[in-house]
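B., you asked whether I could sanity-check this one before it goes into the benchmark set. Here's the sequence:
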Amino acid sequence: MTINNVMRGTVYVLGDNIDTDQILTAEYLKINPASAEGREELATLAMCGLPEGVLPFINPQTQRAGYDFIVAGKNFGCGSSREHAVVALGASGVKAVVAQSFARIFFRNCVSTGQIMPVTLNEGCDIRALKTGDTIEIDLDAHQIATADGILKTAPVGELANIVAAGGLFAYARQTGKI
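And here's what the prediction gave me:
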């Protein structure tokens, strides 16, 4: 995965406490996320556990996410430690998840798998003005997100951007001669 320091795209907006069962329900844990076929199948299932009546996340024509980014509130990715959830989002086309806070294991799985760039909003940033379908621009170097209503400040990602861009922790270690 290539992470650009500036990413522009549309958002899918969620609230607080989005758990891994909403991202990918447990019935799909039998799919092998390490195989190309498994990733292909997981891509079509991202966010399959969201309640009925919410705007669809997967575009039925492309069988991929209809959005580039997920924007959420507090505790995104809580629940189990399954990396399947992260792989499903990344395979579906999500480039980054922007949240007020992340469950620690989900954050680590984003980085270690190299699937998604986790971007943490600074305390006090209000995402309520953002609506699903809005366009944002994430600038990892400037630690900010430009929205139609202004700027949201983010925590620095530092070397994490390079790890995700390399394709995960092991790929980064190989690339930098650490293994």
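One thing to flag: The longest strand covers residues 6-13. Otherwise nothing jumped out at me.
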